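Dear colleague,

Thank you for sharing your sequence with our group. We've completed the structure prediction you requested, and as agreed, I am returning the results in plain text so they can be pasted directly into your records. Please verify that the sequence below matches your submission; if there's any discrepancy, let me know and we will rerun it promptly.
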Amino acid sequence: MKVLVLNCGSSSIKYKLFDMDHKAVIAQGGIEKIGLKDSFLKLTLPNGEKKVLEKDIPEHTVGVEFILQTLTSAEYGVVKSMDEIGAVGHRMVHGGEKFSQSVLLTPEVLEAFAACNDLAPLHNPANLKGVHAISAILPHVPQVGVFDTAFHQSMPDYAYMYAVPYELYQKYGVRRYGFHGTSHRYVSKRVCEFLGVNPEGQRIITCHIGNGGSITAIKDGKSVDTSMGLTPLEGLMMGTRSGDIDAGAVTYIMEKEGLDAAGLSNLLNKKSGVMGIFGESSDMRDLEAAVAAGNPRARLAENMYFYRIKKYIGAYAAALGGVDILVFTGGVGENQASARWGACEGLEFMGIKLDAEKNKVRGEEAVISTDDSKVKVVVIPTDEELMIASDTMAILKP
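Please find the predicted structure tokens below.
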């Protein structure tokens, strides 16, 4: 069966088409700048070459239609007709407490998902646009929703509750939900396959480190704690997000800068993190180059970034009662040796010992710890789209 995976953002649509009989990607690309006059579709050809197709894409239905036309076109097509697409899997961001696993998208499910819009006002409505677009163009094709928050629904209440009046949880669902769940689930499962161990009995810490970053504590294959909270702002220092910050500092900044809620959200989500400290870029490659050039603000940002990861690894080792496997994934986690080294340096007392030579790996599965390290430290490239496609298949062909 061929499964199309869609990840719809407010102004973008990323896609991959899988041949699930061979678990192979046969087409991939994305549309950007939906609603703007310079919108385009960028696709990757089978030989790895990138191609940009410009087109006026005023809204998501037109975008999805353009993707399907491209998949069936004479020049770039990989299928003869849309009838070859057997199912569509969607990345759905915030399922609240309603969804603890992937589900077939029925009208009732979509209504329940839309009720979570207040928890993710930018992402959830965009996800729904993708679903409705497919319904309009391919009305008979089954669709499956895979939720970022679902994997973390196994967290115990003492881990997900905030110490604010309980009524706020009852009325508004104020609690920690966590994100990147599809990635954490994929790499925690894949690392066990890679190492040839059973997830049962394993204490695993997964570090999804990219422009956005989160760390998850996993016991017996289930999430028991994660660094992101009600929103993706909590936890690690990220590219443009502050991560953990004293709420008193937040109200102090609001008063001093005369900010309203929207202004404060913009400050903490888009102007903080690496960008806020370094001041020149939120990209870790730029930061690494500036550190090498001796930029003191870059060095400070890097030290803060690595230190926050290290603290969470230590905290989750405590929460798990020890750690057996430490996984790095995400754009930075998979590719930046200095980030992995900086996050693990000083953790030898916990049994974490990196091998400097093995740690030079980029973007491929590898054990990077020393042979005598008590904790296996492993790089596992994430594949959220494959996880979504696999879930779609599992639901349609149990």
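Summary note from our side: The chain has a mean pLDDT of 96.

Kind regards,
the structure core
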